[in-house]
Design goal:
It is built from eight helices and no strands. By secondary structure, it is an all-alpha fold. The protein is globular, with a radius of gyration of 17 Å.
Length: 225
């Protein structure tokens, strides 16, 4: 079994065991395997390509630190996790913008509208529950809405598989973060915790696949996954 297959197996195993840990409330599984999800995805990316995009590697590192910080309770850890994922999303946005060759105002407006609408609806639902977290959640929400908007614009410009994967990744990431916010600030529910992790893992993998396809085209390399 080569390194790519081992890393992919580790990613799938860590993801499934973490979800099992959440589903059946087994803290030991969560503490062990949640950090390994992005850790193994990072190695999967590194093993898959001879030349990597450094901004994506750094984005995965921020995601890893975000996952670790969110393992612990308390507002300080939550804020640390929020900042880590905020930085990851800034880098995702930077990567997607670098792929967009031309910008049409109407397309940009069309791309932004659905994500801003969802963001506005979510804030309307949560506004009375956020209190001192109102400003941080606004900043984070606008950032992930921007990630969705630029990913949609990227897809409209190229209509390629790699742009579609990035768009799906951004949309599912926004769903995951929305469920996380609803679970934390509005209506805590155990089943939401499970769906937060399922959508998060799927979003990260779709973004990874988009990155692989984009770099494959440039390097003419197809990893065996």
């Amino acid at each position: 079994m080569n390194k790519i297959k081992i890393a992919f197996f580790a990613f799938m195993l860590a993801s499934m065991l973490d979800i099992v840990g959440i589903l059946f409330s087994i803290p030991m599984l969560i503490y062990i395997f949640k950090p390994l999800i992005i850790f193994s995805l990072l190695f999967l990316y590194v093993f898959s390509l001879p030349k990597r995009i450094k901004w994506y590697v750094i984005a995965l590192e921020f995601s890893f630190f975000g996952d670790v910080l969110l393992l612990f309770s308390g507002e300080l850890f939550f804020m640390g996790g929020l900042v880590s994922f905020l930085m990851a999303h800034f880098l995702f946005i930077k990567i997607v913008i670098s792929r967009i060759k031309e910008v049409n105002f109407l397309k940009a407006l069309f791309s932004a509208t659905p994500f801003l609408a969802v963001f506005g609806l979510l804030i309307f639902i949560l506004k009375d529950s956020l209190h001192e977290m109102f400003a941080p959640v606004i900043i984070y929400g606008l950032t992930i809405a921007t990630f969705g908007a630029v990913s949609f614009l990227y897809f409209l410009n190229t209509k390629s598989k790699k742009s579609l994967l990035m768009l799906f990744g951004a949309v599912i990431f926004m769903i995951s973060d929305s469920l996380l916010a609803i679970n934390k600030f509005y209506n805590p529910a155990h089943f939401l915790e499970v769906f937060v992790m399922i959508t998060y893992v799927l979003a990260q993998y779709l973004i990874f696949r988009s990155m692989i396809l984009d770099t494959e085209k440039k390097q003419q390399l197809t990893p065996n996954i």
